[in-house]
Amino acid sequence: MLKDTHAFAVKGATVNRPANMSRATKASRATNVSRATNVNRASLGLLLSVLMLGGLNVSAQAQDSPTQSAQTQDTQVQGAQTTSSSDQQAAAQVLDLLNQYSSDADWDKYFALYRKDGIFIGTDASERWGMAEFEHYSRPTKGWRYDLTERHLIQHGDVILFDELLNSPAYGVSRGTGTLIKTDGNWKIAQYHLSFPIPNEIAKQITAEIKAAKKQ
């Protein structure tokens, strides 16, 4: 009986104790797994929050960046347009004064609007004058009048190209073309070409008369 009891005890120890240990172990493991799961979930949630915040920040920066760039470009473009408009207004004023001073025969002010190396091209094929020659021609006269009808200006940095239609009491429709160059901060005329536009309908008649005049 002692042997059987011992055996029973041993058998109980062998059977029951591992069973009890197994439950404890399972409970402990379950607890650890639960804790680990909770920790992992918390870590995952924190990681997702960080990623989402990072994504929102990147998205916000991506949205802000083009807007800021566009504003800068707009400002630069507006600045360029303002500068161009200001230059063109100043150049147009020079051309207006040119017509005014020639009408008044105010030659000192008139020639001050030209560069020293300026060129004037007149309506006659022989009239390509430097400033000295042009002054020699102009100063003995009482001037000439050309009223502005239409004008176009094209700017390339410190150079402005112009063409304008004028009306002359003596010759009717006339055209002035040329170039202004910014010189020492002021717009000066580098070249002025005065011509008489010929309507296409009478172009051959006029050119025939010009050819005949040259033969005489």
Molecular structure report:
- There is one protein chain.
- The chain contains four helices and six strands; from the N terminus they run ααββαββββα.
- It starts with a helix and ends with a helix.
- A hairpin with a 3-residue loop joins strand 4 and strand 5 (172-183).
- The protein is α+β, with helices and mostly antiparallel strands and 216 residues long.
- It has a six-stranded mixed beta sheet.
- The longest helix is centred in the N-terminal third of the chain and has 103 residues, at 2-104.
- The chain is 60% helix and 25% strand.
Quick structural overview:
60% of the residues lie in helices and 25% in strands.
Question: Layout of SSEs?
Answer:
Blueprint: H1 2-104, H2 107-111, E1 114-121, E2 128-130, H3 131-138, E3 147-156, E4 159-168, E5 172-183, E6 186-195, H4 203-215
Parallel strand pairs: 1-6
Antiparallel strand pairs: 1-2, 3-4, 4-5, 5-6
Euclidean distance between termini CA atoms: 163 Å
How would you describe the shape?
Answer: globular
Rounded radius of gyration (Å): 47 Å
Proportion of helical residues: 55-70%
Q: Give start-end ranges of low-pLDDT stretches.
A: 1-22, 24-28, 55-83
DSSP, total strands: 6
> DSSP strand (E) fraction?
15-25%
Chain-averaged pLDDT: 76
How is the largest sheet built, in terms of strand order? 2-1-6-5-4-3
Structural features:
single chain, 216 residues, alpha+beta, 6-stranded mixed sheet, globular, disordered N terminus
